[in-house]
Amino acid sequence: MAAREADEIIVLSRSAQEYFWNTYHRKTVLLPNGIDPAEPVPVREIQKQYGLAKGQYILFLGRIVPEKGIHYLIQAFRQIRTDKKLVIAGGASDTASYFEEVKKQAEGDDRILFTGFVSGRPMQELYSNAYLYVLPSDLEGMPLTILEAMSYGDCCVVSDIPECADVVGDAGVTFRHGDAKDLQNVLERCFDDPELTRHLGDLARERVKACYDWDEITRRTIGVYRGTLDVVSEKDAIRRMERE
Question: Which residues, 6 or more positions from 157, have their beta carbon under 8 angstroms from its beta carbon?
């Protein structure tokens, strides 16, 4: 009913646009999430709490749920010879059994660190000082964590589902979703080429400013609302005239 009767539909991703068109033959307005520019901060709390140093870890930050593909990341990372750590930051949400599953998968590798839920200064530090950010999801809407990582200038390695790949564009690296071996290969290339990784991080920061600026997205959203209200008002006026 909503898809057929709404005066306008706003979606976050190209894949959602395709869904509404293919399913309902309904045009939609693509308005992605936005992000405010982030100012990187130096290591302080994460060194005290977790023994982390700048550039010496890769980061996953998000809910610990199966659709995020953390099991692919652990499987890939365990096959890589590196002194860098893998930091998995986030809470279990309503999937405690999956959390226990991935922690068991990581057993015996002291390079893998689970921080639990983080916020505030520790979260800012994790983003600011990561070598790169990884999101190996099988399923997403439009992940804010990618935008957050990009806003801090992180090189982002993401699965090639459209909801992730479209966000990073040419300013990140993708791997075949669900393919731990391909993720391993991509991570190894990034470890072997720190200059490229830094360059992609710089591009990511610029892409966020150019494509995901909250002020611009807010203006466009208001424009959709105003246009819809004008149409609704015109329809109401026509109905009144017809009744009279």
Answer: 132, 133, 134, 135, 172, 173, 174, 175, 183, 186, 187, 190
pLDDT tier for residue 93 given thresholds of 50, 70 and 90: confident
Cβ proximity of 3 and 20 under 8 Å: yes
Question: Tokens 């992609």 label which residue?
Answer: 200
- Rounded alpha-carbon distances, angstroms, from residue 33 to 19, 37, 41, 145, 182: 18, 13, 24, 11, 28
The bridge status of strand 173-175 relative to strand 57-61 is unpaired
Angstrom distance (rounded) from CA 207 to CA 171: 7
pTM: 0.88
DSSP 46-89: HHHHH---TTSEEEEES---GGG-HHHHHHHHHTS--S-EEEEE
Digit-coded pLDDT (tens) for 170-187? 999 999 999 999 999 999
Is 92 a residue whose pLDDT tops 90?
A: no
Tell me the backbone φ, ψ of residue 112, rounded to 5 degrees.
-100, 125
Over the stretch 61-88, which tens digit does the pLDDT of each residue have? 999 999 999 999 999 999 999 999 999 9
In this prediction, residue 233 has a pLDDT band, given cuts at 50, 70 and 90, of low
The DSSP element (H or E) to which 158 belongs, if any, is: strand 156-159
Integer angstrom CA distances of residue 242 from 103, 110, 230, 238: 67, 75, 18, 6
Query: Cβ neighbours of residue 121 under 8 Å, at least 6 residues apart?
Result: 41, 44, 45
Contact between residue 147 and residue 167 where contact means Cβ atoms under 8 Å apart: yes
Report whether 156 contacts 46 (CB < 8 A). no
